[in-house]
Amino acid sequence: MTTDPVSPMVTNLKLKRKSRILEITFDSGDTHQVSCEMLRVYSPSAEVHGHGNPVLVTHKKNVNIKALTPVGNYAVKIVFDDGHDTGLFSWKVLHDLATNQAELWENYLARLRAAKASREPLIDMAVKYHN
């Protein structure tokens, strides 16, 4: 009888706004960089997963993260600058995205090509952040 291995815990999240990257460090010592676009198009929200029929999210090349809010010691709520804020990213979801991102990204690009869809934003946005 085998048991599922426990996913590593997230020990640090560092948002790199200019490069639109979320740097994720796990308690295993591994650090991964995941684009905001990938996090947005693979959001674990019902809006994206469509009750078992995943929705192809398009036009998110320039999306960024507006806020990160911890949820207990198991997840983070990510608020994107396009207004999407309903996905809770558990440590397991973040670990799966980080460690499988090459394959997931290729699958996403293939779905875009098949749908003749685009990553490019519909309206070019120049967003400025104030501290």
From TrEMBL:
InterPro entries: GBBH-like_N, GBBH-like_N_sf. The keyword Metal-binding applies. Pfam families: GBBH-like_N (PF06155). Residues 14-95 form the Gamma-butyrobetaine hydroxylase-like N-terminal domain. Keywords: Iron, Metal-binding. PANTHER family: OS02G0197800 PROTEIN (PTHR35303). This is DUF971 domain-containing protein. It comes from Shewanella nanhaiensis. The lineage of its organism: Bacteria, Pseudomonadati, Pseudomonadota, Gammaproteobacteria, Alteromonadales.
